[in-house]
Design a protein that fits this description.
- Helices cover 32% and strands 23% of the residues.
- It has 435 residues and is an alpha/beta fold.
- The chain folds into two domains: 325 residues, ANL, N-terminal domain (Rossmann fold, 3-Layer(aba) Sandwich), CATH 3.40.50; 102 residues, ANL, C-terminal domain (GMP Synthetase, Chain A, domain 3).
- Strands 4-3-5-6-7-8-9-14-13 form a nine-stranded mixed sheet, sandwiched between helices. A four-stranded mixed sheet has the order 19-18-17-20.
- Helix 10 packs across helix 12.
- The site of 5'-O-[hydroxy(phenylacetyl)phosphoryl]adenosine has 20 residues, from strand 7, strand 8 and strand 12.
């Protein structure tokens, strides 16, 4: 019989027991941090909090927040909770928005991280009979190493492709009959496009995909599912909290279960820091309660989302996070209006456009300009010019209805927008050059 990596004693634990476990682990973790991380101890002292004040999760709100600025200030070793001799690995972010974030792991941390990824693979139906093609980047990025380790734990045949080299991806996918694909959703869409073009669809044996590392919409999910003939599942995580697997989707596909035995999630008002009740939208904050080497307490992710403890049909009891709608720093303010790239993606895909688009924002004579380049399908490209400009007008109207402001839409030739092999660059905000 196929072997699964399901941990029902933890994943379906009654909510009261999960909370008790979190309380117990939080108390221990706060002591660990107080004793070993002078940077955070100082923050606690400044707030007048000591470990004695933290008796359980009800006291979590007393602890100070950590932000990316703290990580930068403490770079590289200032938030280490273990001596270097006990650390066995680092992973890091790409550092596109400032100094790199470097996260540290003991062997135990890696083991728990891989557990989280193994749960994610199991939740999409993965067993030791599966062939898992990992097309997230390997190296400093957490995507490849995390899913690779999880796949080993499940006992799958693991194909460590890393990202890129699309022809080779397709060759291995067909030759080895990969059944589960792990990559960013934008790369999955690209692979789907290449499979259609090469007429390989009936040679593909994929049944599921585990896609994350960037914001993607329900419309994008449907597009990928159709192109690849699979079920597409979401996975969430961040380098600061180990990597992918902080939360993952189950067969219900209505949000991601947070691994609550390792992370406590809160939603806060990003302006005031006030903790918001379940069901309200705000910034996601994570406290790692089992990590040894990089034990971040109340880390502000900047990701905007909603938590829900609604009973799930899969039987898992861990709280779910909705698809994050993006990071607060992805939000564009155009002519005074808040615009999320994900809203644009929803409109474009609902209007039958391809998922290949780019948003360009600029400032001319002190006014914001807002342009969206969207690729036409080959079929649309051969339409008459009149039909194409009619479609542009229709897109402008639908975008205005969604966003409340006017964008200029340009339908561009098929294949003219660069495809992404990792995290897609959807926005070019030239205004940043002038600030
Ligand atoms: O992207 C870890 C990861 C790898 C997650 C593979 C899932 C799959 P970072 O590079 O540190 O780590 O980026 C973390 O990416 O704060 C979110 O803004 C965004 N993000 C990650 N997963 C999702 C998702 C990895 N499923 C940042 N939906 C996070 C939306 C996501 N955004």
């Amino acid at each position: 019989m196929a072997k699964r990596y399901y941990q029902p004693e933890i994943e379906t634990m009654p909510v009261e027991e999960i909370k008790a476990l979190q309380s117990e682990r939080l108390v221990k973790q706060v002591k660990h941090v107080w004793d070993n991380v002078p940077y955070y101890r100082k923050k606690m002292e400044e707030k007048g909090v000591t470990p004695d004040d933290i008796k359980g999760i009800e006291d979590l709100h007393k602890l100070p927040f950590l932000t990316k600025d703290d990580l930068r200030e403490a770079y590289p070793y200032g938030l280490l909770g273990k001596p270097l001799k006990d650390c066995v690995r680092i992973q890091s972010t790409s550092g596109t928005t400032g100094r790199r974030v470097v996260a540290f792991y003991t062997q135990h941390d890696i083991d728990l991280w891989e557990d989280c990824c193994a749960r994610a693979i199991t939740a999409v139906g993965g067993t030791n009979e599966d062939v898992v093609q990992v097309a997230y980047g390997y190296g400093l990025f957490t995507g490849g190493p995390g899913l690779n380790g999880g796949s080993h734990k499940v006992g799958c045949l693991t194909v460590p492709m890393s990202s890129g080299n699309t022809d080779r991806q397709l060759q291995f996918m067909t030759d080895l009959e990969s059944t589960i694909l792990c990559c960013t959703p934008s790369y999955a869409a690209y692979l789907g496009e290449a499979i259609e073009e090469k007429g390989l669809k009936n040679q593909i044996k994929l049944k599921a995909g585990i896609f994350g590392a960037e914001a993607w919409t329900e419309e994008m999910r449907h597009d990928i599912e159709e192109k690849l003939g699979i079920k597409a599942y979401d996975i969430y995580g961040l380098t600061e909290s180990s990597g992918p697997g902080v939360a993952f989707e189950c067969e219900e596909q209505t949000g991601m279960h947070i691994n609550e035995d390792h992370f406590i999630a809160e939603i806060i008002n990003p302006e005031t820091g006030e903790v918001l009740p379940e069901g309200e939208k705000g910034e996601l904050v994570f406290t790692s309660i089992t990590k040894e080497a990089f034990p971040l307490l109340r880390y502000r992710t900047k990701d905007l989302c909603i938590l829900s403890r609604k009973q799930c049909s899969c039987g898992r009891t861990h709280i779910k996070m909705r698809k994050p709608m993006g990071r607060s720093d992805d939000m564009l303010i155009i002519r005074g209006v808040n615009v999320f790239p994900s809203q644009i993606e929803t409109v474009l895909l609902n209007e039958g456009m391809t998922p290949n688009y780019q948003i360009i924002v600029d400032r001319v004579n002190n006014n914001d300009t807002f342009d969206i380049n969207v690729e036409m399908s080959q079929e649309m490209f051969s339409d008459s010019l009149g039909k194409i400009s009619e479609k542009e007008k229709q897109l402008v109207a639908s975008l205005k209805a969604m966003l409340g402001i006017q964008a200029k839409v340009h339908l561009v030739e098929p294949k003219s927008i660069t495809r992404s092999e990792g995290k897609a660059v959807r926005v070019i905000d030239k205004r940043k050059l002038y600030d």
